[in-house]
Amino acid sequence: MQSGSVIVLKGPDTIIAHPDGRALINGNAPPELATAGSGDVLAGFIGGLLAQGLDAIDAAAAGVWLHGEVGQEGGTGLIAEDLPDLLPAVLPKLKVLSP
Fold first, then answer.
1. In the prediction, which pLDDT does 50 show?
2. What are phi and psi of 7, to 5 degrees?
3. How much of the chain exceeds pLDDT 70, in percent?
4. Residues of the chain whose pLDDT is less than 50?
5. Rounded distance, CA 21 to CA 15, Å?
6. Contact at 8 Å (CB) between 72 and 87?
7. In what order do the strands lie in the sheet with 14-17?
8. Torsion on CA atoms 46, 51, 57, 58, rounded to nearest 10
């Protein structure tokens, strides 16, 4: 990749691509996330994880997964503003493995 960046392509199967050629696919994206501002919240989740010291691909993967989980938690009628409030309910499901 010319940008040298980790790229997230949000969709029903979200693709996370690393400049070294690695790619991850996350199928955890319910249709309720197809709402205005949802991608901005996803960027905030990833940014928060980066700020806590995760490397870019791990932050993107964890952020995308959390985003999908809060979308499932919120269900029908979800709006982007609901997502951050739902995050505490799903955080315990996230397991970070360290070397």
1. 96
2. -115, 135
3. 93
4. 1
5. 12
6. no
7. 7-9, 14-17, 23-26
8. -90
